[in-house]
Specification:
By secondary structure, this protein is an alpha/beta fold. It contains ten helices and twelve strands. Helix 7 packs across helix 8. The radius of gyration is 20 Å and the shape is globular.
């Protein structure tokens, strides 16, 4: 009896705990939300102007990209902290100058099949964040902060405000909860993705129907279909999706590249699909 009473108290308490359940950026999006991971890096070089242009021309709603900052203060788009994997050079982005980055072949080692390098020597460059926003000022962006030290959150916030996209065209994410918290403190008007640690706690609470006890500021949860935690391997399921999706909040799943799995995810209740192959996603949606 005492346990039942305690549970009822906690369940009721959950309804008075602060929750952010909507954000202006979500008003721009229709479900299922289509998100091109790095612009669609199985089709064109990762996070290149070619990839972004292709995805946007197809009608993709959200462009996902990753950011770092050069030693001279330019925020650039690149997945890795180094340029070793894709280019004909090497080095940590945070230790390189913008002018130095512009000298490298941005797609030298990119290959669609592991055998050919069709964009080697074709002038593909590492992009600045301002370049992509200049090219596509109406686009919705899903920006993952990949550089954590030295912090770039204030510079990113200033840039988003300067371009007038902070309030309703951007979602910011990070695998570092500390980085995401710093960004929220300096740029509270920007929509943010669910922090990793909160995601694990939410999963636990969702098993017992007490997810409302966790105060959340995130309006999007970006999750893989299966994820490793201190509790072991957890699987995305309808209960977890429903636990987060209060109000207008959305769950996006990554990275899904075939139409059968896309349909399974949508049938499970996810609101958005993050894919490396935007053509397959757009065919599925249409």
């Amino acid at each position: 009896m005492i346990i039942c009473g305690m549970y009822l108290f906690l369940y009721t308490l959950g309804f008075i705990i602060h929750q952010k359940t909507t954000h202006p950026v979500l008003k721009h999006l229709s479900k299922p939300v289509t998100i091109a991971h790095q612009g669609g890096n199985k089709v064109y070089p990762d996070e290149s102007l070619l990839a972004f242009t292709n995805a946007i021309n197809m009608g993709i709603q959200v462009i996902e990209l990753d950011v770092h900052r050069t030693k001279d203060g330019i925020i650039v788009i690149n997945h890795d902290q180094t340029i070793d994997r894709l280019t004909d050079s090497s080095g940590l982005i945070r230790e390189m100058s913008w002018s130095g980055l512009q000298q490298v072949d941005g797609a030298y080692n990119w290959s669609p099949d592991g055998l050919t390098y069709p964009y080697r020597g074709k002038g593909v460059k590492i992009l600045s964040l301002t370049a992509i926003m200049d090219a596509f000022p109406q686009q919705v962006y899903d920006i993952e902060i990949k550089q954590h030290d030295p912090p770039l959150e204030s510079d990113l916030c200033d840039l988003l405000r300067q371009y007038g996209v902070a309030a309703d065209q951007v979602i910011v994410a990070s695998f570092s909860d500390e980085t995401l918290t710093r960004f929220q403190n300096v740029c509270p008007e920007v929509a943010t993705s669910l922090p990793v640690n909160q995601g694990t706690i939410l999963y636990i609470l969702s098993r017992i129907g007490l997810e409302r006890l966790l105060p959340l500021d995130a309006v999007v949860a970006q999750l893989p279909r299966s994820f490793s935690t201190k509790l072991g391997q957890l699987e995305l399921d309808r209960r977890y999706i429903n636990a987060f999706a209060k109000g207008d909040r959305q769950v996006w799943v990554w990275t899904v590249n075939d139409s059968i799995e896309m349909r399974r995810m949508v049938n499970m209740g996810v609101h958005g699909i993050i894919t490396d192959r935007p053509g397959i996603l757009m065919d599925f949606v249409q």
